[in-house]
Amino acid sequence: MAAKIEVRPPFFIRLANPWPGMLSRNWSASLSIRPSSLSVQFIMAFFSPSVLLHVLKPALLTQSARGHKMKAMKSWSGGVNYPGFKYYPRPGEVDPPYKPTKLFLIQRIKPFAMNTVREKRYLNSIGLGEDKVIGSYAIVKNTTDMNAKLWYIKHLIKITPITTPDGLPVNDDYSSYHLDHATGVLRIIPELKPDEKRLELQENHHNSPKKMKTDVWKKHARQQWLAQWW
């Protein structure tokens, strides 16, 4: 039995279910297309009804499935309200003891493309936008507004609390600190602190007027090469 196709100009094709036993009895759906009769003729001429139903069924049933999902979520009970979102714990789920940290280490684990506008805006706001590759890191504060953003994009990122067993940096001196990306532990390693005398000598060398700049000796070397000095 062929599927019944009704054309409703200018934008819709309506498909009726030819096999009531395979899908729901009152199954029907609409597909939005461009207002071109050639598109309709191409679909009807080159695709059989079974192929059309096989291809269009997932896309056409998404709306009804989403509607049932939203209805089921509204009927849930036991949700815990947090600032910016609502969390539904599993039966018997108890949060382990946790001491909040001041900072989070965020790693993007999913591509930037094919996300919603809101998700892309949140990724850009924390510094993991389109210009960053998968696996890039960013450090954010543990605030109410930031947690609401992270909850919305939690499927795109990995969150690691940053712990500071040796204390926070003093006077913005990060020269001897090391952050472990795997565990989020910020440690003080005295061996990493540079020698002040060597830094001073290096600075004096770079600012010395006797030092020939890179572009100058490259220019002279090129001139000698073109002049065939040998």
UniProtKB/TrEMBL annotation:
Cellular component GO terms, alphabetical: large ribosomal subunit; mitochondrion
Q: Which GO terms describe its biological process?
A: translation
Q: Name one GO molecular function term.
A: structural constituent of ribosome
Q: Which InterPro entries match?
A: Ribosomal_uL30_bac-type
Q: What is this protein called?
A: 39S ribosomal protein L30, mitochondrial
Q: What is the lineage of its organism?
A: Eukaryota, Metazoa, Ecdysozoa, Arthropoda, Hexapoda
